[in-house]
Amino acid sequence: MSSNDHEAPVSSGPIYTGYSDGRMGSRVNTPRTIAPLGYLTPSEQFGDVERGNPIPYTLPLERRREVGLERETWRLEVVADPESDAEIEQPLSVELGTAIDFAGLMKLAERHAVRYLKGITCNNIGEPLGMGLWEGVPLRVVVWMARPVENIRRVFYYGYHNDDPAQMFQSSLPIGRVLEEPPGELPVLLCYKLNGELLSGKRGGPVRMVVPEAYGFKSVKWLHRIVLTNDYRANDTYASGNNDLESPMKTFARFAQVPDRAQAGQPIPITGLTQVGVSGLAAVQYCVTPQDVAPDPDDPNYTHAEWCDAEILPPPDHWGGGLPDDARLPPTPLQFDLATGAPRQWPLRYTMGHWRAILPGLPPGSYDLRCRTIDLNGHAQPMPRPFAKSGRAAIHQVSLVVEE
Questions:
Q1: Are 73 and 33 in contact (CB under 8 A)?
Q2: Distance between CA atoms of 278 and 295, rounded to whole angstroms?
Q3: Which CATH architecture fits 252-403?
Q4: Backbone CA torsion sign across 13, 18, 20, 23
Q5: Model confidence over 314-345: pLDDT tens digits?
Q6: Alpha-carbon gap, residue 107 to 173, rounded angstroms
Q7: Residue 148: which of 226, 91, 233 has the closest Cα?
Q8: What does DSSP say about strands 197-198 and 189-194: parallel, antiparallel, or unpaired?
Q9: What is the Cα–Cα distance from 203 to 257, expressed in whole angstroms?
């Protein structure tokens, strides 16, 4: 899900990212691309799940300037929760004239800017919306500027939604997640760039939150206020609808290109994508079952099916996404080795990967194709967390007709 999402979203549909370097070519006419977008999704081609009436970035320019939705007027507050006993020494507020403006954030970026690759997925849709290279200043840098002292357990943060309490979109994180991450983990960002370009209003600019391991509702757009609180309870808008507010991204596979029909006895090329969640990715697999064979009611996840390994594609030669030079990533993201410029592992957690396979020739008939992932702990999708309200990871199924 893009970041400010709700149960009744406006959605432009899923976005499939792919390779644009011809790697998909083969002697059996495997499609040259998964989709014509490159590995990174151009900003304007991300899928959207949006909230607001009107949606904030569609407001007239003067109104956007007035409420801080343009870079020259944007301000970010970091204050103590007046309804708890949280203590900070130097609140950053509009009233005091100490709120951070965009120029101030860019000054911090000169010293603290980081970037990383991350896919955006909706908690309740299960289709990737886009794959981006995000850049920003770690949230902890700004939190410490407010000089927190004690009685702080959680960080509440808010996106602008027309000054209408009924439209308010907010989310939260434990203070520990904001201030400290395990070695190799990625920081929570005050994000101002996507794919090397300043964020547009449609993408959540001037500044949005980006939480690397989380589904989209945590990465709140149009960020304007951060509240440090001693309240231990999450305040997320997405608490409605029985959603799991702290669930990290799951690992799952989807089909991208599968023919509706094929000729008997002929190889059948298929391609797909995968979301790499917190548990990583060890393998992508597919299986083919005749539709006239009834599924085993005691095996809803098809664990006893004849699964075959697909090929997980390596890092692309061209990254796409509208980068000035899509053959390279500017400057090296955190997940990449500084000396070689190569990813430290592949596929990267919290990103999208791509895969392909060639099915052997099949006899005439109607078939169901399914794909799944195996994570680095050996769990086959949809395990270990099959629950829909903590991110969708159902096994993807498509149909195929093989003709004489």
A1: no
A2: 30
A3: Sandwich (2.60)
A4: negative
A5: 998 889 998 888 888 888 899 999 889 899 99
A6: 25
A7: 91
A8: antiparallel
A9: 27
Which tokens belong to 66?
Answer: 């007035």
Residue 241 has pLDDT above 50, yes or no: yes
- Residue 224 token pair: 């304007």
**Measured torsion, CA atoms of residues 275, 279, 280, 285, in degrees rounded to the nearest 10:** -70
Structural tokens at position 292: 């006239």
Q: Are strands 208-210 and 268-275 parallel, antiparallel or unpaired?
A: unpaired
Tokens of 297: 């009611």
Whether a cis peptide bond, with omega within 30° of 0, leads into 54 is yes
- Whole-angstrom Cα distance, residue 160 to residue 331? 31
Domain locations along the chain? 10-239, 252-403
What is the token pair recorded at 324?
């000035």
Statement: residue 23 has pLDDT above 60: no
Judge whether 235 and 228 are in contact, CB under 8 Å.
no
Token representation of residue 349:
């957690």
Nearest to 250 by CA among 151, 394, 39: 394
Torsion of CA 74, 321, 390, 243, to 10 degrees: 30
Element (H, E) at 145: helix 139-145
Q: Please tell me the distance from the alpha carbon of residue 206 to that of residue 221, in angstroms, as a whole number.
A: 9
How wide is the angle at C-alpha 361 spanned by C-alphas 357 and 365, nearest 5°? 110
Question: How far is the first Cα of the chain from the last one, in angstroms, to the nearest whole number?
Answer: 42
pTM of the predicted structure, to 2 decimals: 0.90
> What torsion, rounded to 10 degrees, do the Cα atoms 38, 125, 377, 279 define?
60
pLDDT(199) > 90: yes
Over 50: is that where the pLDDT of 28 sits? no
CATH architecture of 10-239: Alpha-Beta Complex (3.90)
Statement: residue 250 has pLDDT above 70: yes
Strand, helix or coil for residue 319: coil
* Angle in degrees, CA 164, 170, 174, rounded to 5: 155
Q: What is the DSSP letter of 2?
A: -
Q: Which two tokens stand for residue 56?
A: 């904030």
For all residues of the chain together, what is the average pLDDT?
A: 89
